[in-house]
Amino acid sequence: MRAADHLDSDKIKLNLRTKRVGRNIIIFKSTASTNDIAAEYSKNEENDGLAIFAEHQTTGRGRAGTKWYSSRGDSILVSVVLTQCRCSGELLSLACAVAAAEAIGQQAKVKWPNDIILNGKKVAGILLESRTDNGRTSYIIGMGINCHQKRNRFPVELQATATSIDIESGSVCDRISLAKRVLTSMDHWLKAAERAGKKVTDRWQQLSTQLGHRVTLVFNGRKFVGNCIGIDPEKGLIVQLDSGGTRFFDAVHTAIAK
User: Are 251 and 161 part of one and the same domain?
Assistant: First the structure.
């Protein structure tokens, strides 16, 4: 980890003009999972917008229980607590993907349901979880962005499909600046999701790697093949099936076939 690249809450907060996301920030040198810590903080409604960063995770996870690999200081590892979210989980997931892609820049694209793609390879992932306390639903948005990884630092099975910002840009990513952009972008797109869902879905479709292309999906153990024709903010991916008809696929029960 580069000394100037060390995550510090005061440095991240400097000139950060968000109204909600990142108003309060906690940074851990190491933790099991930022999402697990965020889940505990979500029990208090006043923690809406809290951002929890870590330099390292020992049991970071992705979607469907997969492991998230990251060496100390190589990534942005952050979870945001939302205790007062006024939009659906599906729309929130789309908004977070758009926010991450725009923060990363460099032609970043979104791959439904939770991947951010650079030059055809995965550079970031999002894990959206929810919990209910006393009848109130909170969301925890976990995000991992590969920043400083070298190709040979990824596990062998991921080297053909994973990448980092440093690899794709040919320069050294400034993680502090990226952390600020992530919080600012999430703040902006959360507001958009709560006010005008169409703005989110329109932007998602502009950034999508799948819109207008053939996809193979696994839904509750069954495989479906067809053309992706859109996204619905409540029902998920819209696919014109080869077998006939149009079907919606929600993110909770669906995976993209490898």
Answer: no
Find out whether 28 and 19 touch, Cβ atoms under 8 Å.
no
Q: Report how far residue 8's alpha carbon sits from residue 179's, in angstroms, rounded to the nearest whole number.
A: 10
Q: Token pair for residue 196?
A: 């005008």
Q: Which residue has 């991921």 as its token pair? A: 158
Full-prediction pTM beyond 0.70? Answer: yes
Which CATH number fits the domain that encloses residue 39?
3.30.930.10
Residue 223: give its domain's CATH number.
2.30.30
Residues spanned by the domain of 170: 3-207
| CA 10 from centroid of its chain's CA atoms | 24
Looking at the fold, whether 163 and 246 belong to one and the same domain comes out as no
pLDDT in tens, the chain (258 residues): 455 688 999 999 999 999 999 999 999 999 999 999 999 999 999 999 999 999 999 987 766 566 777 789 999 999 999 999 999 999 999 999 999 999 999 799 999 988 999 999 999 999 999 999 888 999 999 999 999 999 888 888 888 999 999 999 999 999 999 999 999 999 999 999 999 899 999 999 999 999 999 999 999 889 999 999 999 988 999 999 999 999 999 988 898 886
